[in-house]
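New to this. Please check this protein:
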Amino acid sequence: LHGQVNLVNDAIGGRVQTNLKGQLIPEQGWQVFSQTPLQKLVPDTLFDWQLTGKNIWLNTWLDFPIDGREGNGWVRVKTQGNRLLIPELGTPLDNIDAEVEYDLVKGLSAKQGKAEFLAGPAQFNIHTDMAQGAVMVEGLGQAEVDALSLWQPMPFSPWLSGTAPYNFFVRLDKVSQLHLISDLQGVEVRMPPPMAKTAEMNTSLDVNMSFGAEENRFAVQYGDHVNAKGLWLGGQSDGKQGDSEQSEREIGQAEPPKP
């Protein structure tokens, strides 16, 4: 890193001003948030994020009073081909190409970032609700059904194939939430009617998930035929506490496709 660090006096007291830029390995760059005065200003949900891969470009302009008054400024990070693991998502974003900014007043933000997620291309935006201490990530992409099934296995996964477009919204908080919707165009469902669909057909899929310290909940709506809800405790499915509702036909009556 190179730049300037100045100690100045205003009418009230001293201030430390920094203007630094350069390249860092990702793990060290994350220490800007976790091992500096920024730690008190950053939502706790960020500290468990893991950024790895190529060197990142870092640019900072920060102004901190040394007497406890509020500071201002920003930290900007440029990534190219990095990997980010957000624990709540449980699967990484790869090959990230984005410029991410942390503003002391506005929080974390990014516009039109690009990445690979669930074996397909994705675009995302990030913004922060500073009052609630929550980070929001929203975007769209294309996902390989096989990768989606590995990420969140479902009873009917063996009967699915293809690539699905989707839109998503993630709220990272004490109880984080994921909302994903898709018209499933490009996905074939090899099940008996009325569940079956060809790759050319549009059928709505609406998934809501919440991730808490002790339990994870989900709700899935597939067209007009499946409305399922469930609960995981400690990351494991608990059939007694989960409940599901299906119309027309039980998934278990279909035979798995032959290799």
